[in-house]
Amino acid sequence: MKKNGNQALLPAGLQDLLMPAAAHEAEVVRRLIDCFSSEGYDRIKPPLLEFENALLSGAGETLSDQIFRLMDPSSHRMMGVRADITPQIARIAASRLQNAPRPLRLCYGGDVLQVTGSQLRPERQFTQVGGELIGVTEDAADAEVILAAVTALENVGVKDLSVDINLPTLVPAIAQELGIDKEAALELRVALDRKDAAEVEVLAGENGAYFLKLLNAAGTAQEVLDYAKGLEFKGIAKSEFDRLVNVVDLVTKAAPKLTITLDLVEHRGFEYHTGTSFIFFAKGVRGELGRGGRYDSVSVDNVTEPATGFTLFMDTVLRALPKPKIARRIFLPFATRREDGNALRAQGWVTISGLELVENDRAEALRLSCSHLIENGHIHELGNN
Amino acid sequence: MKKNGNQALLPAGLQDLLMPAAAHEAEVVRRLIDCFSSEGYDRIKPPLLEFENALLSGAGETLSDQIFRLMDPSSHRMMGVRADITPQIARIAASRLQNAPRPLRLCYGGDVLQVTGSQLRPERQFTQVGGELIGVTEDAADAEVILAAVTALENVGVKDLSVDINLPTLVPAIAQELGIDKEAALELRVALDRKDAAEVEVLAGENGAYFLKLLNAAGTAQEVLDYAKGLEFKGIAKSEFDRLVNVVDLVTKAAPKLTITLDLVEHRGFEYHTGTSFIFFAKGVRGELGRGGRYDSVSVDNVTEPATGFTLFMDTVLRALPKPKIARRIFLPFATRREDGNALRAQGWVTISGLELVENDRAEALRLSCSHLIENGHIHELGNN
């Protein structure tokens, strides 16, 4: 996936995928979705464009600045190009699929557009592939979506996968338990996210020692679970933590070789999450492969259901995979019978048909990047290719 | 592909594809593109959005009214959401792929948006799948794209396929040969398109008898080729017609069972075409499955190359296919081991995992539309499903 060589032709952050990147992306998307489908996640396809308010419902609210807006000449209402697919899934779950039995398993693969790229990620068009499990409160649901994503990523060839599991509801619950007011709790959360020990100590006041201890609750799953015994969670914090422990236990049992890390204070990017959340990484690959977690699926008309799900980011996923194999290309000299070509294609060859008589079929085959050609009815490999 | 049940939630002409339609569309797109790829058409993926002028180059000019426009906050230039993918292919062929050897074979599959639907076709979002063969003048190229599309459509299961081949350059060439001025020729072409014999006779004046004869040059390939002997084409008209005959001959030889019809006066929708053009139909299916033909691939910076290609319209293609088979769904009661599910999925089952202990696994399986369940390690078929 090289960047566009001629930037002036395309707006910043938009690019053409050429060969073989475009075919590779499509193939990987298909294999991921096949995997989700086999676990009962039914594929749906919302439109690229819909009324603005629907795109801004629930977690979509955070994307308000990122939506390209358009006036619909037919309804005179404001529309937006989707910047995320999850709010569309929530709309569909609450409308056309409101009577479908719960749990409702849905998956999708498609492109989204955002108004501005970031410095780290200049792209403005992304391919998202994801799954949502809607109408569920069980810990088994959280474990299922993590395992579904892990299985699919491993299936397409991602190596050294790890999942970082977070619990964005824990710090607010502890703060509430300790009687810290909302505003102070928010500041504290930001300092914890930054891992700024000095600031945490100042903001936490009499609870400084406790929050400093909490700050270190990050590492491998086993380390953190052992360490957390000393943190003595109470009330909601305890029940939230117990759920996390249960999810980690379910995931570990099903995928004993998976690297699981925990970070009990991480909160960034999980502002709308209501429980166990997670990010996927692959060793040596820059960026997140995907992320997800528990949330409230809120539709445009405010139907709310407990849900969990994940989104994979195809640009990072493709970076984590080996380069695609190039198919063997065989040159069919001009006037080769179509049935001969069909027979080769059925065997998996990519055929390149000559459209006119040329003096030297071998030279023509090489010029067209073929590795083989048909000569007198036989397949010949081209030497200097 | 049912229409949205709750129209108020989506703008007119936009719809959600649900299960199993979305999966079916994706599967058919994949199989079509696999077919084109096997004939050397490399998949590429241009972005959904680009600068307006690039979208309006060449044949894109006719779509000016159909493009949703957006201001790019980063470049302050006007962008548009693509209403057609062909102009994007022309841009790529002339820029990043300008040094790739010709003929250049490219294919694509993706969604386009149009500002207004028509009465016949209210949709504003379409899925296009197509192929372009760029840098070619040979008749074998015209035959190849027709055959590639036919093969792919038959491969995915379209029955009773026919191709209507047209030659939009013929009438202008005859008019020029007869010394009819441009404006009169244009009026005549419109009357011919409408098959309005009375009007044709009036407009053609002294050539009335000839054009009335031409008007009847439509029917099966053999009928029209026989009939055309009496039309005695001269000059450019003759050479254009000879090319058409050659293309028909090449297609007939390669696909002797294909129904081919010809219409020598049809011109509608081929305003930008420069030679043999065609439309695909399936018996009993409303609308065109796709269309294409010879054109000049004109990039935004006016690089021009002779080309031919086709676009398939997925909504019509899917209407021409039998309903997709629904995969067998098997219910895995709560706490079924993940490896047992993996084994079933590897055999092609869709598994639905129970997320909590229920009193009656069979009832739960039926509630979740499963046809089978695992009970004591064995697969049981559910009776009343």
TrEMBL record, chains A, B:
Q: Where are the transmembrane segments?
A: none
Pathway(s) it belongs to:
Amino-acid biosynthesis; L-histidine biosynthesis; L-histidine from 5-phospho-alpha-D-ribose 1-diphosphate: step 1/9
Q: Where in the cell is it found?
A: Cytoplasm
Question: Which Pfam families does the record cross-reference, listed alphabetically?
Answer: tRNA-synt_His (PF13393)
> What SUPFAM superfamilies does this protein's entry cite?
Class II aaRS and biotin synthetases
Q: What does this protein's UniProt record list under function?
A: Required for the first step of histidine biosynthesis. May allow the feedback regulation of ATP phosphoribosyltransferase activity by histidine.
Family according to the record: Belongs to the class-II aminoacyl-tRNA synthetase family. HisZ subfamily.
**Which PANTHER family would you find in this protein's record?**
HISTIDINE--TRNA LIGASE, MITOCHONDRIAL-RELATED, HISTIDYL-TRNA SYNTHETASE
Organism superkingdom: Bacteria
Indicate the principal place this protein occupies in or around the cell.
cytoplasm
Q: How does it assemble?
A: Heteromultimer composed of HisG and HisZ subunits.
Class II Histidinyl-tRNA synthetase (HisRS)-like catalytic core domain location: 13-317
The record, for Gene3D superfamilies, names: Bira Bifunctional Protein, Domain 2 (3.30.930.10)
Q: Which UniProt keywords apply?
A: Amino-acid biosynthesis, Cytoplasm, Glycosyltransferase, Histidine biosynthesis, Transferase
- Report the InterPro entries cross-referenced here: aa-tRNA-synth_II/BPL/LPL (IPR045864), HisRS-like_core (IPR041715), HisRS/HisZ (IPR004516), HisZ (IPR004517)
Which additional comment does the entry carry?
This function is generally fulfilled by the C-terminal part of HisG, which is missing in some bacteria such as this one.
* Record's protein name: ATP phosphoribosyltransferase regulatory subunit
